Amino acid sequence: MQWAVLIAAFLASAVEFVEAFTIVLVVGITINWRSSLAGAFAATATLAAIVATLGVALVRFVPIDYLRLVVGVILILFGLKWIKKAILRYSGLKALHDEEAIFEETRAELRARGEEVAPRFEPFGVALSYKAVLLEGLEVAFIVITFGSSSATNVCNNTCGITSAAIGATIAGILVILAGIIIRAPLTRVPENTLKFIVGIMLTTFGTFWAGEGFGVAWPYADAFILVLAVLYLLASFILVMILRQSKQRRVVGVSMPKDATEVSEQEVLH
Amino acid sequence: MNAIKAIYNFIVGDMIILIGVVVTVLVLALINNVSALAPLRAIEGVLLVVAVLGVLSATLLREALGKR
C-alpha cells in the first residue's frame, strides 16, 4: 500500500466526485430523482464498460480534452437557458405561472388529494446527470491510472500503485455520496425558482470551466476557480435582474403617466 | 425537420444563446489553431467568461425589448 498515492488520489478524486454529485443532486431536486439516478447509473455503466474494455490504455485512447469541450459547451447552453428564465422571472418580465409552474401546481394539487403522481423520465435531467457523471468518472479513472502508474517503484509495482489510488478514489466517492445524502433534505426546502436559478449558475459555471479546460485554459487556482466563476456569474445575474427591474419600472411609470394626465384633464372638464 | 426542432428546443431553444455560444467556440478554436493569434491564448479564459456574460445579456436585452 502506498499511502502518499492513496491520499493524493483521494483528494483529487474528491474534487471530481463533488462536481459530479452536485449536478446529480440538483437534477434530483429540481427535476426528479428517477431521471437523475437513471442518468447517473447509465453513466456508471458506460464508464465501467469503457474501463473494462480499455483498462490502463484508457489514458491513451479517450480524448478527455475534446470530451470536456463538448460537455462544457452543452452545459453552457443548458445553463444559460435556465439562468435566462430565472432572471426574467425575478425581474417580473416573465410570469411565474408558465406551463412548467402549472404542471407543478397540478402535481401539488393531486398530491394534496392523496393521489400519487409517478415521476416521469425527463430526458433533460437524464442527459445532464449522465454527462456530468461520465465526464467526472472518466477524470477519476484518469487520476487513478496516472497517479498509480507514475508511483511505481521497486517496492510497489504498477498494479500496487493503481490499487492504492483506486482505494483512495473509492473512499472519496463514498464520503461525497454520504455528505450529499445528508444535505439533500435541507435543499428541498429552497423555493423552486431559486433552485433553478442556482442550477443555471452551476451549469454555466461548470460548463465554462470544462470548456475552458478543453481549449487548454489553465485556470488560476485550478479547480478552486469554479467558485470564483460561480460568484462572478451570480453577481452578473444580480446586476442584470436589477437593470431589468428598473427598466420595467420606468416603462410602467412611462405608460401610467399619460393615463394619469388624461384622467386629470377629464376630471377638470367634469368640474 | 420536427426532429431538428425538438433537439434545438431540448438543448437550448434560444437562437441568440445558440449562435453566441457557437461563435464563441469558433473564435476560441481559431485562437487555439492559428499561430498568428497565439498571443491571445493567454486570455482565452477571460474571453470565454466575457462571451458567456455577453450572450446572457444579449438574450435578456432581446426579451426586455420584445416585451416593450
Structural description of this entry:
The complex is a heterodimer of chains A (271) and B (68). With 271 residues, chain A is an all-alpha fold. Chain A has one domain (3-270). Chain A is 82% helix and 0% strand. Chain A is built from nine helices and no strands. Chain A has helices at residues 3-30, 33-54, 58-61, 64-90, 99-112, 123-150, 158-187, 192-214, 225-270. In chain A, helix 1 packs across helix 8. Chain A is elongated, with a radius of gyration of 24 Å. Chain A starts with a helix and ends with a helix. The mean pLDDT of chain A is 78. Chain B is an all-alpha fold. Chain B has one domain. Chain B is 78% helix and 0% strand. Chain B has helices spanning 2-11, 15-33, 44-67. In chain B, helix 2 runs antiparallel to helix 3. The interface between A and B is medium-sized, with 34 and 28 residues.
What's the gyration radius of chain A in Å? 24 Å
- How many helical elements of chain A? 9
First CA to last CA of chain B: what distance? 32 Å
| Count of the separate structural domains of chain A | 1
Beta-strand level of the residues of chain B, as a percent range? under 5%
Order of helices and strands of chain A: HHHHHHHHH
Shape of chain A: elongated
| Average pLDDT for all residues of chain B | 87
End-to-end Cα distance of chain A, whole Å, is 97 Å
- Major sheet size, sense and barrel closure of chain B: none
Query: Percent of residues of chain A in beta strands?
Result: under 5%
SSE pattern of chain B, N- to C-terminal: HHH
Mean model confidence by pLDDT of chain A:
78
Largest inter-chain contact set: A-B, 34 and 28 residues
Shape of chain B: flat
User: Which oligomeric form is depicted?
Assistant: heterodimer
Structural class of chain A: mainly alpha
- Percent helix of chain A, as a range, is over 70%
Structure class of chain B:
mainly alpha
Radius of gyration of chain B: 15 Å
Which spans of chain A have pLDDT < 50 for at least 5 consecutive residues? Answer: none
